[in-house]
Task: inverse folding
């Protein structure tokens, strides 16, 4: 197809126009970095979540899924280290009062440099390497000096008048219960900043009730909340988002083998849902989180650059040991299979390899790959164009549009009958308004992979026209074939 364009700003407005994503509370001018999913977005998001859930819990015999609550006992977050450590280094511009995450401020500056030319790109790499080294040492004075030495300015005030670098905790706090406590701190609960802790505190419940044997995994999808400072790039960085996480519990000493296994597995899974291998890459962490002995990101080339899509972390036995210490409950595994001198090895605290992907980021990945503005010359020499979402058929929100050519002559009745036949198997959409060409374009824009048109010939020979979104090819098939044909293409 000639003249394909892929424009991020266009994609954002397309998402709104076609019921994928709306700004939260838009009628009140919105809430920053919070978004609502519309009728098509909610269905696409559910389809992606279902694919992940199936790949984890159905295709792996040793992974089970849970659904833990968002609210957790506040000690959970003391034990996990989030109360003391879940902070990002921030810096404020004294003139505009605008606050920046230090790494984002420097990365933004480096991106601008890179766009200028080869010499500047080398300079940008040096600045980024210096930033990584300073972050690894928690050298906040050094980071401020790096910003000042490079005369990095605020995008609002355009000045280089910065405060010191400070740490800012990202967790949202709220009050729990109706009765005021004597000590107000007693009522504080947090909105979970990650879903993982709900898995750790349920480790023994699941292991014992499910009679799970190591190695095994616990998967979970759900909302997480972070008071992000730089919240931009649409649904890439939100304050309320959804994670799909799996904690894989392994014998101590085997964690690097499993880390390498999941690193490969997860990249393959992304490819299996239609992300080209060339758009994915690994990025090893330089500065490891307090709980990790190895960590990497799987990055995707978003329209605004290479960014983290999923994190793979070897979390050691940190979390389970911390919860054991804070709860004073023994959290260990008795390994009957591992023998030493012919006897069971005994109890140990399992090590954990985590895979953690943002559902909203994956949604954005899929839409940014799918969105295309296409122009071509028709046989008669005239120009034509369309906007199409080439979402893989198996996750597209609507699979089949059923379109009677006209609203009369018994065609809607045949269409409704087909709808009743198909709707128990997959998601269909019925539309009888507008000219057929206009209806096809609308289905292209929504990303519906198949359209079926019922016309007068249908009444004579029971055949319909099926139109394929990606190729725009049309062919005649019998009414009876439609359901199987779609099912074959979406399975
Ligand atoms: P970043 O460096 O981009 O802030 P992170 O390293 O803090 O991300 P993790 O804590 O590893 O992210 O979370 C796992 C996944 O959750 C990320 O790979 C990402 O897909 C998703 N995620 C994290 N924060 C957000 C957010 N604010 N909005 C949307 N998705 C997020």
Result:
């Amino acid at each position: 197809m000639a003249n394909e364009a892929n424009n991020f700003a266009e994609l954002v407005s397309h998402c709104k126009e076609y019921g994928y994503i709306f700004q939260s509370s838009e009628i009140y001018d919105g809430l920053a970095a919070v978004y609502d999913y519309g009728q098509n977005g909610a269905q696409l998001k559910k389809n992606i979540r279902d694919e992940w859930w199936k790949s984890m819990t159905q295709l792996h015999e040793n992974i089970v899924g849970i659904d833990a609550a968002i609210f957790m006992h506040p000690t959970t977050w003391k034990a996990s280290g989030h109360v003391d450590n879940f902070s990002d280094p921030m810096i404020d511009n004294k003139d505009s009062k605008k606050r920046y995450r230090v790494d984002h401020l420097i990365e933004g500056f480096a991106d601008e440099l890179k766009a200028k030319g080869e010499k500047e790109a080398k300079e940008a790499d040096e600045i980024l390497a210096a930033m990584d080294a300073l972050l690894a040492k928690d050298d906040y004075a050094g980071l401020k000096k790096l910003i000042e030495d490079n005369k990095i300015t605020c995008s609002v005030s355009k000045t280089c008048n910065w405060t010191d670098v400070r740490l800012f905790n990202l967790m949202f706090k709220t009050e729990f219960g109706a009765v005021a406590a004597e000590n107000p701190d007693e009522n504080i609960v947090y909105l979970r900043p990650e879903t993982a802790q709900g898995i750790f505190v349920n480790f023994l419940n699941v292991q014992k009730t499910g009679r799970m044997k190591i190695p095994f995994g616990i998967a979970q999808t759900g909302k997480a909340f972070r008071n992000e400072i730089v919240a931009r790039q649409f649904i890439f960085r939100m304050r309320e988002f959804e994670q799909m996480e799996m904690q894989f519990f392994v014998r101590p000493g085997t964690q690097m083998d499993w880390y390498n296994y999941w690193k490969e597995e997860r990249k393959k899974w992304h490819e299996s849902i239609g992300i080209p291998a060339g758009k994915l890459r690994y990025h090893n962490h330089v500065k490891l989180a307090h709980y990790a002995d190895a960590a990497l990101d799987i990055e995707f080339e978003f329209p605004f650059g290479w960014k983290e899509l999923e994190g793979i972390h070897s979390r050691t036995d940190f979390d389970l040991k911390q919860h054991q210490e804070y709860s004073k409950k023994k959290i260990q595994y008795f390994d009957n299979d591992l023998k030493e001198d012919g006897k069971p090895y005994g109890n140990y605290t399992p090590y954990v390899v985590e895979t953690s992907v943002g559902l909203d980021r994956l949604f954005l990945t899929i839409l940014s790959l799918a969105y295309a503005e296409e122009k071509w010359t028709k046989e008669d020499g005239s120009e034509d164009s369309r906007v199409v979402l080439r979402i893989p058929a198996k996750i597209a929100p609507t699979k089949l549009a059923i379109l009677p050519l006209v609203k009369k002559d018994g065609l809607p009745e045949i269409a409704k009958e087909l709808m009743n036949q198909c709707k128990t198997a997959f998601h269909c959409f019925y539309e009888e308004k507008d000219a057929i060409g206009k209806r096809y374009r609308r289905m292209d824009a929504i990303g519906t992979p198949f359209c079926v048109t019922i016309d007068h010939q249908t009444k004579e020979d029971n055949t319909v026209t099926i139109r394929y979104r990606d190729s725009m090819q049309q062919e005649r098939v019998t009414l009876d074939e439609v359901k199987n044909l779609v099912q074959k293409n979406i399975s």
Q: What stands out?
A: Residues 194, 226, 228, 237-238, 241, 243, 308-311, 356-358, 360-361 surround adenosine-5'-triphosphate (CB under 6 Å). The CA atoms of residues 18 and 213 lie 47 Å apart.
